[in-house]
Amino acid sequence: MSSTSDIARLKHRFRTIYRVEIDVDTSYVDVLSIQGDDVLDGKYTGTHLLPSWMQGQLAVLSVFPNPPPVRTVADIGSRMGPGLFWIVQPTKET
């Protein structure tokens, strides 16, 4: 798992952090904001219904094999497990 300092660094640089879980059997997606806006919180029937910026970040993180180890990409997020991701929403300045 990522350390507390990793999460603190992400909170400092970005407005909202999302926990995104994709059910590997159904492709349903559960989005939960950890910090910031909760406007995207909810259940989705597929990643195609997510905002394009989030789809892109999931695509980048999905390239990595399932952890361990946890894979983190600066300014994007982390792949925590099969179908489990921490995604950061960039601020308007980035």
What can be said about this structure in brief?
By secondary structure, this protein is an alpha+beta fold. It has 2 helices and 6 strands. Helix content is 22%, strand content 33%.
Protein described:
There is one protein chain. With 94 residues, the protein is α+β, with helices and mostly antiparallel strands. The protein has one domain (4-89). The chain is built from two helices and six strands, in the order H-E-E-E-H-E-E-E. The chain has helices spanning 4-13, 52-62, and strands spanning 16-22, 29-35, 42-44, 71-73, 77-81, 84-89. A six-stranded antiparallel beta sheet has the order 3-2-1-6-5-4, with helices on one face. The chain is globular, with a radius of gyration of 12 Å. The protein starts with a helix and ends in a 5-residue tail after the last strand. The mean pLDDT is 84.
